[in-house]
Amino acid sequence: MQITEQEVRTGLRRGRYVTTARVETAVFVALVLEKPLLVEGPAGAGKTELAKVLAEMLSTELVRLQCYEGLDEARALYEWNYQKQLLRLQADRTLEAGSSWQTLSKDIFSREYLLERPLLHAITAERRVVLLIDEVDKSDEEFEAFLLEVLSDFQVSVPELGTIPARHRPVVVLTSNRARELSEALKRRCLHLYVDFPGVEKEAEILALKVPEADEALREQVARFVGRLRKLDLKKAPSIAETLDWCRALLALGIAALDAAAVRQTLSLLLKHEEDIRKAEPKIASALSDSRR
Predict the structure, then answer these.
(1) In whole angstroms, what is the distance from residue 139 CA to residue 165 CA?
(2) CB 244 within 8 A of CB 198
């Protein structure tokens, strides 16, 4: 693919994705080498958003496969349209009583009767797409093994139709929250990138882009306070999206500066588990003190 590192940097910034040189380089190399990019990191750090911005940058469709335990080939790749096949069989009995089963089976097991799921859609799309395989660590090891053919050869196998190669090699982004260790076979087929929560300066920059109506002082306070919360041993650290929502909520409530009362009033908007709220409440005063520095 003919693209420069500067074009990647500009495209990500145009998509309002605040990033680092490491992320920009990984995306650039993945595009040039046409290799899948495995993005690991904590939940809410911006991994999925990277794929969305990449599709926007390339002006193409984002095809998303959300992984979960028990995900199988039928939900990820294809499924036969059994209702349509049954109607075809019924119509054939009426209209073509003399046709053979061999002729008919070739007809009903054709592309016309195939329901495309995300993987097959990405492979057969008429133009290159961005394929997001989201939270691959939530899928079973058997499904992970099934992905290897797609990631290595960019083709899929349908027993009734044979091997279907990609019309256009998709840009593939896999994300993982590291709920389990992925296989070495999968990792070998991908370039690797770790995306962590941003530091205070980067998060303040994100807030400036996404919540421009907040003044600089409030953005700095919010970024510093959230940064302190993430250092606690929480069940679920605040995501970037939750930080943005919290800042917008503060503005909606007319809160122009953080204080202990404002934080206690709105903390449940930022932390979604009661045990995390109880753990954070005794730290509010010290966290606010740091956020004003």
Answers:
(1) 24
(2) no
Q: Which residues does 12 contact at the CB level (< 8 Å), separation at least 6?
A: 19, 23, 24, 27, 53, 54, 57
Could you read off the pLDDT of 127-161 as tens digits, one per residue?
999 999 999 999 998 888 888 888 888 888 777 77
Please name every residue paired with 158 in a beta bridge, in sequence order, or none if there are none: 162
Q: Are strands 62-66 and 37-40 parallel, antiparallel or unpaired?
A: unpaired
Query: DSSP H helical segments within the chain, as ranges?
Result: 5-14, 21-33, 47-57, 73-76, 82-95, 101-108, 118-124, 141-153, 184-188, 200-210, 216-230, 240-252, 260-270, 274-280, 284-291
Cα(121)–Cα(168) distance, integer angstroms: 11
What is the radius of gyration, based on Cα positions, of the chain?
Answer: 24
Query: 54-100, pLDDT tens digit by residue?
Result: 999 999 999 999 999 988 887 888 776 666 657 666 666 655 555 55
Tell me: the pLDDT tens digits for 29-44?
999 999 999 999 999 9
181: Cβ contacts below 8 Å, ≥ 6 apart: none
pLDDT of residue 163: 82
At residue 40, what are phi and psi to the nearest 5 degrees?
A: -110, 160
State the Cα–Cα distance between residues 265 and 219, nearest whole angstrom. 18
For residue 143, give the nearest of 251, 45, 35, 70 by alpha carbon: 70
Structure tokens at 19: 């990033």
Report phi then psi at 127, rounded to 5.
-140, 165
- pTM of the complete model: 0.83
Task: Look at residue 45 in the predicted model and tell me its pLDDT.
Answer: 93
